[in-house]
Structure formats: structure tokens, C-alpha cells
Amino acid sequence: MSLLPYRDPNPSPRLMQLMGHLNRLFILPRLVRLSGFDLPVADLDRLRAAVNPSTAAFVAPSHPEFLTDWMIDKELSRRCAPRMASWAANDIVNSSALAQRFWLANGLIANTPGAGGKAYSLRHARSGRGVLLHPEGAVNWQAEKIWPLHPGAIDMAIALAQQLAAEDNPRPVFVVPMVWRLRFTDNVHGALLREMRHIEEQCALSVPSTTDPAERLAGLLGALLAQRAEALGLSRPSLNTRQPGRGYFAAQSVIVAEIRARLSQSYGTLSEDPMHALRTVQRGLRRREGQAPERTSHDRALMTELHRLSRIDATIYGRDTLSQEQVAEILKATRAAVVTRGLGNRLHNFIPRAVGRRVAHVRVAEPMDIRSALADGATSQSLLAELRGRLQRAQDDLGAELEPALARNRMHNFIRAQASNGYATAV
Question: Phi/psi zone of residue 67: left (φ > 0), alpha (ψ -120 to 50 degrees), beta?
């Protein structure tokens, strides 16, 4: 798809206000199925204190779910900064002339490499209206873990702080960490089973029938691991056919190691961190654009499978029990990766409808005062680590707060694993 060149946003206050009301009255309750929005007064006050006409602020939220993130971001901006600018994928903003006109009027900044997005963000932030961007970059469909961050928010905040210092302008510069979790309001075990049956049918998987969602999930993941390994020419995973979940993480780790070894032959040594490894391969694929299309296509398929498997993280999903929210996020990530044929499936992956009604629990961590941090000797790297730490601590605290409600619908985990020296082994 040929994309249009970058253009600065051209925000329309009326359209942005209209979209805020439409989001609150229709999109949140009906499209993404949010029946409640839990944002404590203290957290909203913290956000408003950091994003207002007298400050320059970069809001950095976690990124666990596609589409819902935009809608939650929009509701937050409606409450504290209605003209906040937001970064979005280049292939969404610039896909067509009509799309570009609409998104730019809504204050979206296209993430076009080497274009004017950063310069616009600095101007917009210093106007006191705020700029929002997801530092994790890609959606990973995991509510509990903050993945490695891109430095954009931190680097832009540093650049703006340096500009203001050179002008003797006292305006403070903040980076605001923000997290959210989604909790089903009811038991959705039946809906989860229906979602699994759709994936099984679309992928032609043979999975033992059971009414336990967690047990059915183990069978689905095992069958899919074997099917994808065969399609990609990888070793057949060693799985127990009677208990597909038993040994799943050990089998997955073998497949992941084999994919990494094959990709390393073409793209060099890959980082142990899965997200950094994926970015290395993505850069290599861009450099090879148009060269050896068959080999490049296979490498891209290997990269996609590596990304899919990295989301099924034993440190998160290898515990004794699974919440229904965890099962749901595994299914959405799996469906987005492997169920891509047909207009209905493509539409679902772009507008992923939840299996039940939910409440969004949003928390705002203590903002980072960038000018004070720089005066104390902070660097871009240390500030990025601090941002990730604040996001993860806020996410951990929110998880502990919600656990009594989540526990009511927890299930026995059939893909349990035990961590040992950083690696997961089946039990």
C-alpha cells in the first residue's frame, strides 16, 4: 500500500470535541464494551496538574489492547486536555487522502520515520495542550507486563527542556506514566469457548472438546504450535497428545530457539529481549525490500511467529491459575496473528470486539519532572529506565488492587510452568 507523505496535524476543536462525546456515548459502551471507567479523583488531579496551559507534557500510557487504547486515551484527553495531540501508526493516518484529512483534524501525528512529527510535538507540548504516545510502540495484548520502551517520549521531553532552558523559560516539562487494566464484569467462560471454536475452525485445528476454557486453551495452543511449526519447516514440537498443555512451554521454547537461530543467520545476533530481536529483524527486512522475495516472505513469516510466541510469556501465563482476562488476551493476540483471511476477520482484528462487558481501571503514576532530573545528571537512558519502572510498578499495584475481583473467575492453568534461571520449564 502506497502511503501519503507526512503532514502536520490540523486540529479542529469542534471535531475533536464531537469525537470525544461520540466516544463517551457510543464507542466506549457499545463498540469496545466498557460499562464503567474507574479513574480515581487523585489520579485525574495528578494528570491535570501535569497537563495544563502552564506546562509542557508528554503522556506515556501502557499499550495492552488495540483500539480500546485509542478510546481510553480519547476519554482521558476529553477530561483534562481536549486538544491533546496523539501519535498513531503511519499506515492508519496516511492510508488515503480522506483518512489523512480526518485523522489530522482529530490531532493525530503520523509516525512517519524521519518526518516532522517530533518537531510538531515539541511545539504542541510547549503550547500546554499535551502530546500522547505509547512508548511500548506495538500492542502486545498483555495487561501485566510493560515491554521495552521506545525513547521517543523521553527524547522529545529532553529536547524541549533544553530549548526552554536556553530561552530562560521556566515552563516545567513532564512525562506522565499511565496504565490501565480491563476487567470483565461477569463470568465469560462460555464466550471464551465460542472464541476458541472460531479460531479452531478458521485454522482447521483438531482440539479435544471440553467445557473448561483453560483446558481448551491448552489444547488450542498445542495444536497451533504444531501446525505453525510444520508450515514454517521447523522441528515438530514434542507435546503430550492426551494432555496438550503439559510440556507446552518447554516445546514453545525449542521452537523459539530454532526461529531465532534461523533469523540470526540472515540478520545477525538477536537480543535476548524478544521485542529488541523483532526490531532488529524488521530493520533488516526493510533493508532487503524487493530482494529475494520468497526468502524475505519466509523470514517475515518466521518473525510473525516469533512475535506471536513471545506474547505467550511463561512468566505471566505459567502460574497455577489463569484469570478469564488472561485467557481473553491470549485469544485476541492469537486471533490477530493467525486468523486474518476474510473481510469479517480483518474487520474484527481492526475493531476487536470483547467477549463480554468490562470496566476500565486507569491509574496515573507520579509524573517525571524532566528539567529537575536533567539538573541532577539524568540521561536519556536512565530516564527511559525510570519511565518503564514507574509504569511497571503502577501496573503491579493496580493488579494487586484488582485481584480480589479477578479471583472469583480464575481457572486452573493447564500450561503451568516454573521459572528457573530466567527460563520456563513445564511441570
Answer: left
Whether residues 215 and 279 fall in one domain: yes
Are 80 and 172 within one domain? yes
Close Cβ partners of 383 (under 8 Å, ≥ 6 residues apart): 154, 157, 158, 175, 368, 370, 373
Backbone phi, then psi, for 106, in 5-degree steps?
Answer: -90, 5
Q: Does 395 reside within a domain?
A: no
Q: Give the pLDDT confidence of 83-122 residue by residue, as tens digits.
A: 999 999 999 999 999 999 999 999 999 999 899 999 999 9
Confidence class of residue 378 from pLDDT cuts 50, 70 and 90? very high
Residue 422 pLDDT level (bands cut at 50, 70, 90): very low
Q: Is residue 392 part of a domain?
A: no
Answer yes or no: do 311 and 370 share one domain.
no
Task: Answer whether residue 2 is part of any domain.
Answer: no
* pLDDT on residue 419: 41
State the pTM of this model.
0.92
Same domain, 157 and 265: no
Tell me the C-alpha distance between 414 and 410, whole Å. 12
Report if residue 371 sits inside a domain: yes
CATH assignment of the domain containing 157: 3.40.1130.10
